[in-house]
Amino acid sequence: MKKRPNILWISFEDTNPFYGCYGDKIARTPNLDKLASEGCLYTHCFSTSGVCAPARSAIITGMYPISVGSHHMRTTNPSMAAPEEITSKLPVPYSVVMPPYVKCFTEYLRAEGYYCTNNSKTDYQFIPPFTAWDECGPNAHWRNRSDKNQPFFAVFNPTKTHESGMWPENCPEITFDPDEIEIPPYFPDTPEVRKALARMYTNIEYNDKFLGEILKQLEEDGLSEDTVVFHWSDHGPLPRGKRWPYDSGIHVPLIIRWPGHIKPGTKSDRLISTIDLGPTVLSIAEIPIPPYMQGIPFLGKYAKGPRRYVYASRDRHDTAYDMVRAVRDKRFKYIRNYCVDLPYNLWIPYLHKHPIMQEIWRMYIEGKLNEKQKVLFNKRPPEELYDILNDPYEINNLADNPKYKKDLERMRKALDRWISQVGDMGKINESDMVRFWYPDRKQPQTEKVVVIPIWHKNYGIEPIMDENKEYTVESPCLIQLYCPSQGASIGYTFEEKENPRWLLYTQPFFLPKGKVFLRTKAARIGYKESEETKIRFVVK
What we know:
With 540 residues, the chain is α/β, with parallel strands linked by helices. It is built from eleven helices and 22 strands.
């Protein structure tokens, strides 16, 4: 039987491609540069959202946030207060309740024998079901699998490059000269802005070393030739980037090394969305792509042709509601602002901690910003169109320019088609959406698992549920598990310890001979886990 490849993800938080291999003359990224020289560097990879939790919900499910209700930032972190309309009427934080057929894509890997680990970022807008990972936590590692020949999917996510890494207290030692930094034209050129950007480069350099260590471990284990390595980020880090669908918010790095399949040192300008990452992993593992997934695999057995467009959205961020939709091709970006009554600068307390944002406010109050730097204080138009080849900073809005009328109409239609195809839950009031999921204002709970033994005296007819009884059965005895909750995933274990390893139930299994303690429980995305079902057997 052909051995499936190992797959390793090393993702950086809040990172545009400020890397040497992408042509940045300031960056010091030797490990990323080496990885790019050994694989393919993708120049046109874009996130579905300019902020982490909605973007990561798309990555783990292969579904657009607006399509499944994970578009508001944020739902699961109590430190990020939602508006009073939500907090006073509904349970907050809340987990997004996905359609019953939607799974974390790692379950499909586990079902095919992959050992899946996450060290240790989730942030999916829902509490990840226990069936999503073999291990999820700070000690999760491919090295923990008991069978060293078992293929693995391993995720590592250093947090140093998060937006908050630009706060002075979080990066006290800057390793780059602020005077050498190139300032985007929409930022004021002040010492504080330069220091913040120097911290950003410092943190990228730190993460580059982390990536180098992980790749060194892979090499030490003799796995480099058998492992597909992905490096990517969820979105950008800077004001007018993070939380927005401008390229500074959604343009992210993507580097993939696949020995024997990707020619070293190649570049691709293929349009890729981060929603494509999960389906691509399944395709590389030669696992059929579930038909509900909206991402497009671009490598492996089930790879499809290139995209013409990528799409992004912006909705509530912490306390501030908004609704923005965007589409991009290789040249143009079209942005539709639904809330034209709102200013660009909404009250988002966490954003306003950013030292660059504080400088922008200070300079605006003092009347010292030029026209390009005032872009965030302009009146919001209903539509924005940018020729990114000639205007990479997206400053000159061409929506009212008759020369670009055909491009505007084409991009409008592309956005309309996308919204029609995937649906847009942004049109639903958030309170109404959550009430639909939580009709009694309480998170629904997955129902308990039913255990059905199948042996010559009971061919799957009678379940057993008495946990105070020991059941004697004859070998061979198959166990079938059933959960009444639609869309539930079931896990089981024979371990009695407090934190066992839960196996993913995919089909009936045989009980071993002797005394057996079977524990099982179920979970559905957005629901509470079920209570455990615990049954003791004597198998003769």
